[in-house]
Amino acid sequence: MYENNSIKKKLYISMQMINVLIAVIMTLLCIIAYYTIEYTYARALIIGVVIVLGTICLINIYIKFQAENKPRDFSRIKTVELVNEDNDIVSLWNIEDKTSLLIGKNTKDEKVNIDLNPSIYSNLVDDKHAVLNYAAGKWFVEDLSSEYGVRIKKRDDDIIYRLVNDTPCEIKCGDILYIAKIKLLLK
């Protein structure tokens, strides 16, 4: 994960250096054209075009800079995605307006919010396996004393942790929940 971010940063810096080089070359070409052209109107046109293009470039740079510096709220989870081994989405649940969600399997007697029956590993899931709770602006997951447990892969450190039964664990956007062998992406 960190190597990927490092490569992206290096690529971004290289692209910015190329952009600066292009700007310098364009400026030199405009200066040469300005001094070699004798017509006043053509000189005024070159100056106008350079000013307009420069203004557009500065506005674009400002917008990109503002977008990059905007902090992302990773505590805001919008969806839970059940994915297969190829990371293809099997089921998707929108949880934006919810405060509590039961994860497990639907039965004749009881319905759960996140039904893992579509997974090939559903036989490893308890009817009431885990619960997601939203409190104080944060999401938490809790293992409901299930046989095969709940694990979480945190986006911050890329380590998989096993949850202690009946103990809430904070989750964020980008984390991955493993309910038994079932993979749930938090986005």
TrEMBL record:
Residues 101-157 form the FHA domain. The keyword Transmembrane applies. Coiled coil: none annotated. This is Forkhead-associated protein. It comes from the Bacteria. The chain crosses the membrane at residues 12-35, 41-63. InterPro entries: FHA_dom, SMAD_FHA_dom_sf. Keywords: Membrane, Transmembrane, Transmembrane helix.
